[in-house]
Amino acid sequence: MWKQALILATLLTAAGCSPEQPPPATQLATIDASQLRPAFASATPEAKALADDVIMSLQASEDGKALSALQALAKTPNLDTAQSNVVAGVSEQLTRRMSAAKPK
To answer: Which residues are within 8 A (CB) of 31 and not within 5 positions of it... i.e. 6 or more apart?
Structure first.
C-alpha cells in the first residue's frame, strides 16, 4: 500500500513540474493604436480608410493584414509629421509583437 502511495506522489510531483507555456501571441504585446484615428481625422478618404483597416485588423488579431495596411498608409502622399510618427510607432510595436510571436 505504501508503495502505491509513493508512486502516486511521485507522479503528481512530476506532473506539476512541466515547463511553462509561453503566452499566446496576443498577450505578448498590446498595440497602442489609440492615436491612429485622431491623427487621420482630417486626412483624405483613402488615408482614413487605410487607418480604419489597420484598426480593424488589429482588433481582429490579423497582424499581417494590419502591417500591410500600415505600410500602404506610410506611402500615402502628403502625410504630415504627426501622421508619419503615429504610423511609424504603431508599425514598430506591431513588428516587435510579430517577432516575439515567432517560434524559436
So the answer is: 58, 90, 93, 94, 97
- 2 φ, ψ to 5°? -70, -30
Q: Which residue from 40, 37, 88, 45 is spatially nearest to 67, judged by alpha carbons?
A: 88
CA dist 55 and 20 (Å) reads: 32
Q: Record the cell numbers describing residue 44, joined without a space.
A: 483624405
What distances in angstroms separate CA 93 from CA 2, 33, 61, 87, one per listed residue?
56, 9, 14, 10
pLDDT digits over 66-80, tens only? 999 999 999 999 999
pTM of the predicted model, to two decimals?
A: 0.70
| Alpha carbons 44 and 60: distance in angstroms, whole number | 24
